[in-house]
Write a structure and sequence with these properties.
This protein is an alpha+beta fold. The protein is built from 16 helices and 22 strands. A hairpin with a 5-residue loop joins strand 2 and strand 3. It is globular, with a radius of gyration of 22 Å.
Length: about 450
């Protein structure tokens, strides 16, 4: 098969949706279309506007194809999301927003039937962050609609299904804190079987498998060739990880940044994961278990008014001299310090704006370092996504881990990773080693932050 020259990646993040064109040879991004990914706060529960997203996807594919003919399509999406599809191919219920608290109505009953952490690698999470809980809640809360479900599709495979009409399951999404997969045994969990859902789970396909060509009506609507292949798709954090899995020798860790900061350790030291601190086992595109941890770093950055860009040395000196810190956690419901309220040790209004930005960057770096410690990460730390452009974050992460820190060259690592599925190979990732250093008292700052954070 001739490698595709131009790959369109449908990249649905929690905050933004994108369709990105990637050159199949150089892996450079050629063009992109973006839209905010909002939530519809309407009955029967807050849900994603899948029809608005679908219209955006079709329009973007058509526009981009006129600029550069598309040879293949790959899909990547955020996790913790499942679609219940009827025999007619339509949703029997809207796609639930995982930040909705509704599923917690059945949390106690769910705990009695869910798999053990040791089996599924899935910790108990707030809101609807366990996809298994979402489905369990939907089945109990809306039994008539649920009874019409013909497929349970994870979110990336839902969009691949809409593009091809072919249903599939895939392990990076099933293994994303869902309670639906056994990472160490490579099979659906006992929970899926006990709930009678096995019949609703389509055949498991590899993330890079071609499900089929686009449906004829999509070719007609977009102008794409009718034989353009669509690949099965991948969970977004695993998309960021994939180029390294295919090209890099372990040990190392990848920090995928976006709405969530997801930390994944390859070749990790053997540690006992603490499910109470948002550690988990992800599954990479090859089907291998990956110790992981996470926190809502991108959400915190946004809520705090964070800004990327270089900060003057005077601002960093101000923070270190005054011991100005932001202690965890924001948001407080998830991450390695669940239930702890965010606290500024020096009121923000007493700091210059540049100093406040340094505090925010340092906080996020120290949260990331904590996540790395919890999963036994070893070797260089590779930062992908928006935080790879935040120099203060990178410098403090280097101090806090005392290991090399490398910055990925793309602001949308997920799109490049997903393009690897269609290309059948991965580029040698372009990484920049962080050589800049902080003043020596940054080591004491990091140690004091850890001590104060540990006291809660």
């Amino acid at each position: 098969m001739t490698p595709p020259k131009t790959i369109a990646v449908v990249d649905i993040g929690k905050t933004n949706a994108k369709v990105v064109l990637v050159d199949g040879e150089s892996f450079q991004e050629i063009a992109a279309r973006t839209m905010p990914n909002g939530v519809v706060n309407a009955a029967p529960y807050p849900h994603f506007d899948t029809e608005k997203l679908w219209a955006f996807i079709l329009e973007s594919l058509g526009d981009l194809n006129r600029e550069h003919p598309i040879d293949a399509i790959s899909v990547t999406t955020h996790g913790a999301t499942a679609a219940l599809v009827g025999e007619d191919g339509h949703l029997v219920l809207p796609v639930l927003d995982y930040e909705h608290e509704g599923p917690q109505e059945h949390a106690d009953a769910y705990r009695a039937v869910r798999p053990r952490f040791e089996e599924s690698g899935t910790p108990i999470m707030p809101m609807g962050l366990n996809a298994g809980l979402q489905i369990y809640w939907q089945s109990g809360r809306f039994p008539k609609a649920f009874a019409k479900a013909h497929h349970i599709l994870m979110y990336a495979q839902y969009w691949s299904f809409r593009l091809t009409g072919i249903a599939a399951s895939e392990v990076t999404s099933l293994g994303c804190h869902a309670d639906l997969w056994e990472p160490r045994n490579g099979r659906f969990s006992s929970f899926v079987e006990s709930q009678g859902w096995t019949r609703l789970m389509p055949p498991v396909r590899k993330a890079g498998d071609v499900l089929g060509p686009i449906r004829p009506e999509i070719a007609a609507a977009t102008g794409l060739r009718s034989d353009v292949p669509v690949h099965c798709g991948i969970h977004d954090s695993n998309a960021s990880l994939l180029p390294y899995v295919l090209t890099r020798k372990e040990p190392y860790a990848v920090v995928s940044t976006g709405t969530w900061v997801v930390v994944m350790a390859i070749g990790a030291r053997s540690v006992v994961l603490d499910e109470a601190r948002d550690t988990l086992i992800n599954v990479n595109a090859l089907g291998d278990p990956v110790p992981s941890s996470r926190f809502m770093g991108g959400r915190a950055f946004s809520l705090l008014g964070g800004k990327s860009g270089d900060l003057p040395p005077a601002a960093i000196a101000e923070v270190l001299e005054r011991g100005a810190m932001l202690l965890p956690s924001l948001p407080e419901e998830s991450g390695p310090f669940p239930g702890h309220k965010a606290t500024w040790t020096v009121p923000r209004e007493e700091l210059s704006e540049d100093a406040a930005q340094a505090v925010i960057a340092f906080h996020l770096a120290l949260m990331t370092a904590t996540c790395l410690d919890l999963i036994g990460a070893d070797g260089p730390v590779i930062v992908e996504g928006p935080f790879a452009a935040n120099r203060a974050f990178l410098m403090m992460l280097k101090v806090a881990t005392d290991r090399p820190v490398l910055a990925g060259g793309s602001a949308t690592g997920t799109s490049i990773g997903a393009a690897c599925l269609a290309a059948g190979r991965a580029p040698d990732p372009a990484l920049v080693s962080i050589m800049d250093t902080l003043p020596t008292d940054a080591v004491d700052y990091a140690a004091r932050w850890r001590a104060l954070a540990g006291q809660g």
